[in-house]
Design a protein that fits this description.
This protein has 325 residues and is of the alpha/beta class. It has a single domain, classed as Spore Coat Polysaccharide Biosynthesis Protein SpsA, Chain A (Alpha-Beta Complex), CATH 3.90.550. It contains 13 helices and nine strands. The strands form two sheets. It has a seven-stranded mixed sheet with strand order 3-2-1-4-7-6-8. Strands 5-9 form a two-stranded antiparallel ribbon. Helix 2 links the parallel strand 2 and strand 3. The termini are far apart.
Length: 325
């Protein structure tokens, strides 16, 4: 098979998120053009043998699934071991950072798609693949889910150091891997982590915005459609991204929830997803904990906005820190 007929797609997930990944895979496979061969790389740190077996039901001749345990693989990357015990491991899972290492770990590819697992793909993913990056490092959509939250907007402008109107969401990325290797995004990220130990509201996303600013191809919003009261419903979403508190398995009101359930009810994990949703809705403590987590992010944004040392302050004094000025 010729190399240009392969579309490499990456997910980064832990065992707890496998049921939602199955929804993403179901929708992706159902709607993808048959003229391409899809190689699905599932980057993970703890997917159980039983879950791997269940997900492989989606794997067939032109839609191959591979599991890549990255905890050990990433140890081979120079500098990663020094991040142990650092903010790198301070979150629910270090899988959020895996996308930053795709260029160095997969030198056989010059281009790839990265997707979060809290999505559905009612569109044809090959249309995203065919988008020309025009020399930019990444293709991504502006994150309009934060455009109505004043502390987040202020944080992005003052702490991350980019215009909040053009701050992109890292859950859907069209990646120019060749160019990202040339500018050494992995090495730059490790260096920043070691030297400055930035706190961040959205760690991987803030780093990607700060590093790749001025080299981003802005995609049509339909490729990262985020449920938001601040935006009208998109008529023909290509990818729906249930970020923040809009996840259909945590509530019954989420915009586009009907599209999610269209694929969730035949994904192989429908019983688990429904059970989790019902348990969450019936447990006020779980709902309160989740609401507090979102409120905590808003408070963190306000706190960090007042700090003197930030992505913005370092970049302002040393322009070369950006991958493309």
């Amino acid at each position: 098979m010729e190399q240009n007929s392969i579309i490499p797609i990456f997910f980064s997930v832990n065992d707890a998120y496998v049921p939602y990944l199955s929804v993403a895979l179901n929708s992706l496979k159902t709607n993808a053009s048959k003229k391409y061969y899809y190689l699905i790389h599932i980057l993970n740190d703890d997917i159980s043998a039983s879950n791997r077996k269940r997900l492989l039901r989606f794997s067939e001749k032109d839609f191959k699934i591979e599991f890549i345990p990255l905890t050990e693989t990433m140890e081979s990357i120079k500098g990663v071991s020094k991040l142990k015990g650092h903010q790198f491991e301070a979150f629910s899972s270090p899988t959020i950072y895996f996308r930053l290492f795709i260029p160095v770990l997969f030198p056989q590819y010059d281009k790839a798609i990265y997707l979060d697992s809290d999505i559905v793909v009612p569109g044809d993913i090959s249309k995203l693949w065919e988008t020309e990056l025009e020399g930019n490092l990444i293709g991504a959509c502006a994150d309009y889910s934060i455009q109505h939250i004043a502390p987040f907007m202020h944080y992005i402008d003052t702490y991350v150091g980019v215009d909040h109107k053009n701050y992109v969401n890292s859950g859907v990325l069209l990646m120019n891997l060749k160019h990202l290797r040339e500018v050494d995004i992995a090495g730059r990220f490790i260096s920043w982590m070691q030297k400055y130990r930035f706190e961040a509201v959205a760690p991987d996303q803030d780093y990607i915005n700060a590093l790749c600013w001025n080299s981003i191809k802005y995609l049509d919003p339909s490729w990262d459609t985020m449920p938001s009261d601040a935006m009208p419903r998109i008529v023909s979403p290509q990818i729906i991204h249930f970020n923040l508190d809009t996840k259909p398995w945590l509530n019954e009101w989420s915009m586009y929830h009907d599209v999610f359930w269209e694929y969730a009810l035949c994904c192989g994990y429908e019983k688990e997803i429904i059970q989790r949703r019902d348990a969450f809705l019936k447990d006020p403590l779980q709902r309160e904990k989740y609401e507090n987590a979102i409120a905590g992010l808003i408070k963190l944004a306000a706190k960090l906005s007042e700090k003197k040392t930030s992505f913005n302050s370092i970049i302002s004094s040393r322009k070369e820190f950006r991958l493309c000025s």
